[in-house]
Specification:
Bound molecules: cytidine-5'-triphosphate, the ligand C[C@](O)(CO)[C@H](O)COP(=O)(O)O
Helix content: 25-40%
CATH architecture: Alpha-Beta Complex
Shape: globular
CATH superfamily: Spore Coat Polysaccharide Biosynthesis Protein SpsA, Chain A
Number of domains: 1
CATH topology: Spore Coat Polysaccharide Biosynthesis Protein SpsA, Chain A
Strand content: 15-25%
Length: 241
């Protein structure tokens, strides 16, 4: 929290954490996928620009690989509202390192929105909607999408059943939680040796019930080579609010 200089009232602050320390194994390119050029810019440049376009964001903390030589080449690396931290072995380690680096700036109750570098097609409007819907929520939550395919449970290539899909959603990012609660939940998962692939899982392990807010299907995680033309298609056509 900080104090609004005009009203003197406490105002909630919002921080962004971008885990961008992955190697992009499934992409199989000769540079990490966040530095591949799509629709005229590197993926990470698109992602940071779109998050900086959200006016209520105080700053963006980007977790980078220890040997990252590409970051200084991005125009966004020179933006005053952009900070960096060193990433870790897994995505959750990178997020935790970024949260530790934020400790000099963020207060316990400030909101942190964690967003994958690889989800460059995020729209500022979707981030703003998530912030508005969750601002007064006791826990926080995530953008997510109900699944649209029939699901199959498979063992050794054979279908064992068709689980009920009516309660199944796909987790997207941003994932928005209070600074201290998120940091403690990730620390406790790490201490317990529990692998968490998103922030909501860490909060769930801590006994919390995060909310889902329906996101957009073009908020894809660029993962495999075939995702690149799709991302270019979305990035070129989205109306950038
Ligand atoms: N140790 C890691 C691993 C991943 N990430 C980031 O977490 C996001 C989601 O991860 P994913 O899409 O799986 O990226 P990679 O780990 O790079 O891909 P792969 O699993 O194919 O190697 C990405 O923005 C990635 O850069 C990170 O910051 N630190
Ligand atoms: C956080 C996430 O994007 C939600 O879908 C996802 O869990 C990260 O992907 P990963 O491949 O498991 O790192």
């Amino acid at each position: 929290m900080s104090t609004d200089p005009k009203s003197g009232e406490a105002e909630t602050r919002f921080w962004i954490v971008i885990p961008a320390a992955g190697v992009g194994k499934r992409m199989g390119a000769d540079v990490p996928k966040q530095y591949l050029e799509v629709a005229g810019k590197p993926v990470l440049q698109h992602t940071v620009e779109r998050l900086l376009a959200v006016h209520r964001v105080s700053a963006v903390m980007v977790a980078l690989g220890a040997d990252d030589e590409f970051w200084p080449e991005l125009p966004c690396s020179r933006e005053p509202r952009v900070l960096t931290a060193t990433g870790g072995k897994e995505r959750a380690d990178s997020v935790l390192n970024a949260l530790c680096a934020l400790s000099a700036h963020a207060a316990d109750d400030d909101w942190v929105l964690v967003h994958d570098a690889a989800r460059a097609c995020i729209t500022p409007a979707d981030v703003e909607r998530l912030m508005e819907i969750l601002e007064d929520h006791p826990v926080g939550g995530i953008l997510a999408l109900p699944v649209t395919d029939t699901l199959k449970e498979v063992e050794n290539g054979t279908i064992k059943g068709s689980p009920d899909r009516s309660r199944i959603w796909r987790a997207l990012t941003p994932q928005m939680f209070r600074y201290r609660a998120l940091k403690e939940a990730l620390e406790s998962a790490a201490k317990g040796g529990l692998a968490v692939t998103d922030e909501a899982s860490a909060l769930e392990l801590a006994g919390q019930s995060p909310r889902v807010v329906e996101g957009r299907s073009d908020n894809i995680k660029i993962t495999r080579p075939e995702d690149l033309p799709l991302a270019a298609f979305y990035l070129e056509r989205q109306c950038f609010e």
